[in-house]
Amino acid sequence: MKLLTYTKQDTFVHHLSGVTKLFFFLLWCVVSGLTYDTRVLAVMIAVSMWVIWDSRAKWEQFAGIAKLMAFFMIINVVCIFFFSPYIGCEIYNSRTDLLHLFGNYTITAEQLFYSLNVMMKYFTIVPSAFAFMVSTDPSEFAASMNGVGIKYTAAYSVSIALRYIPNVQSDYRRIKNAQEARGIEMSGKAKPIERLKRTSSIIFPMLFSSMDRIDVVSNAMQLRGFGKKKKRTWYAGVPLSRADKTVIVLCIAFSAAALWLTFYDGNRFYNPFQ
Fold it and tell me: In terms of CB atoms within 10 Å, which of 3, 21, 26, 91 comes out highest?
């Protein structure tokens, strides 16, 4: 199973232009980063889940990264509580004690609600990023970016980056299999800390392999005169369809409404404790 790679499907999300999906993803990131309104985040999560469902992405395609995201999300919430156990109380101007742990650490309803909003931000962005990766043809995406005015050299760089994700994954699996063939346990049987250390040791061989590949590709493109002319033609270029324009308009309308709902009272935190 190839992870986080484009798979051609007959879905609404797949038929959208790469520019439309990039525009949607960037607006999603901006709104999610600015708002702490739980109602807005709930709607964004629902839309993100529908997007990833419509893209027909399989769990195996992003299971590893999803687990890693969950790990960092938990670490983030725990660190927030450890260093600022009452930041939620300061934000919502109230304090409702639920459980005293030790010393100056007491779990409050306000802190839990703030942590909930932090976790919801992850679930608004990550599913959209997954859907973007598995539903966007790199060639069509580069052509679409160039069609809206982005320099084709930059667009082609993005296309190459997306295309080489499967190669990086293949390198990882090959190095991992070589390590296991030498008796180094890297599966779930190993202890988490040992597994993390052994997995991190793969990064350096992958780094050197990727650098060699970059050198080969750059030399090949240079020999073919890439970047010499100001314009180029695209085999996979497609114009924006009516569905693309409709999605862009809906994204702008939703973003404007979400930001208005977030800031209309001068506070971007939705406060259910008042």
Answer: 21
pLDDT digits (tens, 9 = 90+) for 137-179: 777 777 777 766 777 777 777 777 777 776 777 777 777 777 7
Strand ranges (E), 190-231? none
**Distance between CA atoms of residues 74 and 66, nearest Å:** 12
Could you give the CA distance from residue 156 to residue 263 in angstroms, rounded to a whole number? Answer: 38
DSSP secondary structure code for residue 55 in this structure: T
**Beta-strand relationship, 97-102 and 105-108:** antiparallel
Helix (H, G, I), strand (E, B) or coil at 36: strand
Q: DSSP state, 269?
A: B
Name 210's Cβ contacts closer than 8 Å, sequence gap at least 6: 164, 168, 171
159 closest CA partner among 143, 177, 183: 143
Residue in this structure with the two tokens 């008042």, named with its chain if needed: 274
- The tens digit of pLDDT for each residue in 125-137 reads 888 888 877 787 7
CA-wise closest residue to 4 among 55, 74, 80, 70: 55
Q: Are 130 and 151 in contact (CB under 8 A)?
A: no
Distance in angstroms between the alpha carbons of the first and the last residue of the chain: 50
- Strand segments, DSSP code E, in 66-202 are 97-102, 105-108
Residue 175's identity, in one-letter code, is: I
Euclidean distance between CA atoms 12 and 77, whole angstroms: 35
Q: What is the pTM of this model?
A: 0.72
- The torsion angles phi and psi of 273, rounded to 5 degrees, stand at -95, 0
Tokens 């296991």, residue?
180
> Exposed e or buried b for every residue in 161-185, given b needs 16+ CB within 10 A?
ebbbbeebbebbeebbeebeeeeee
